[in-house]
Amino acid sequence: MITVSPSMQALLSLSQRSSLSRRRVLAGAAAATGLAAIGMPRTAHAATTMTWIGWQGYETPILAGTFLKDNDIDFQPTFISSNEEIITKLQAGGIGRTDLITMYFGYLPLMAEAGLLEPLDPKKVAQFGDLIPQFTSQDAIRYNGELYGVPWNWGTLPLMYDPAVVTTAPTSWFDITKPEYKGKVAMVDDPLGNLLVWGTAVTGKPVGTILTKAEIVQVIDKLIDIKKNHARAFFATYGDMADAFARNEVTVSAIGWEAVAVWAKQKGKTIAFTIPKEGTGMFMDCLCLPKDCPNPELAYQMINHIISVDPQKLFATEQSAGITNLQAVPTLPAELRE
Q: How many CB atoms are located within 10 Å of the residue 337 CB?
């Protein structure tokens, strides 16, 4: 029998809602609640260097407005190709040298137990009460009664496809193995994402990461088959996938992210996405303070900036991302509120 931890229970809850649209998530939340521009120093002291680790595109709200200039911050981002990379970087010397990270919520209890994170003071997060209650109430963002993550964005892992070639949206993840897509499938080096998608597709389990050893072997075998017999390439990042779509090297994907369509569009290529009948993974990412964060007060200010209305709006519109501040939702274009 498999023991389901609080973090896995949270995963199950989110995955069961993986096909929800933004409208349904935000409408439910409303009902529940009653509804790098880096500035030069302005004073004699040197700018404060702040280090951040996260996904490509996640720096967008940080760069919004004049926050960095106003606070004399020398912003130093490090981009990742998987969530696991953040853990590795912290364990390999990042503790005491990293100010802020953005992490998938399911990992927070494990990271807190391992001593990689600082507990957060909710009183220092001014707009915590404005965030979607379904996210702020998740058990997995807390450990031993203390808060370890501030939910700031969410999304799904859809199947991406080129509508100029694939005129009808695929209805199953297994459609990518059809002969016409041989050598035209995009894969990405995202271990957790691949398990969330293909763990469910292969086994039928509601959460692709809660599997027996035999089931994991089944999933791995399927991914190896896709890589060997169907994939164009196993890309290091989602940005690389977007570039491949833009170059017409791939027509469908074995995993996706809404931002891929945005990045491909910037290169003149229109990409569509769909959620197949087997469902897909749904993620929620949190802002976290690493253990012994060098500039905790500035880090809190950065958290408050990221979840404020204007940066959230910018992130949603530029990255096609799901945001968590309910006060920002009415400011979004209609197509992003749906």
A: 15
Helix (H, G, I), strand (E, B) or coil at 325: strand
Q: Top-level CATH class of 158-274?
A: alpha beta
- Which residue, among 160, 156, 138, has the nearest Cα to 148 in the 3D structure? 138
Same fold for the pair 6-155+283-337 and 158-274:
yes
Query: 272 pairs with which residues across the strands?
Result: 161
- For the chain, the structural domain boundaries read 6-155+283-337, 158-274
CB 82 within 8 A of CB 113: no
- The reply to whether the predicted model has a pTM over 0.85 is no
Query: What's the CATH class of domain 6-155+283-337?
Result: alpha beta
| Type of residue numbered 97 | R
Angle between helices 258-266 and 238-246 (to 10 degrees): 50
The pLDDT tens digits along the chain (338 residues) read 444 444 444 444 444 433 333 334 444 444 443 333 333 344 445 799 999 999 989 999 999 999 999 999 999 999 998 899 999 999 999 999 999 999 999 999 999 999 999 999 999 999 999 999 999 999 999 999 999 999 999 999 999 999 999 999 999 999 999 999 999 999 999 998 999 999 999 999 988 888 999 999 999 999 999 999 999 999 999 999 999 999 999 999 999 998 899 999 999 999 999 999 999 988 999 999 999 999 999 999 999 999 999 999 999 998 888 999 999 999 998 777 66
Which residue in 66, 79, 59 sits closest to 37, CA to CA? 66
Strand-pair category, 159-161 with 185-188: unpaired
Tokens of 267: 């290169």
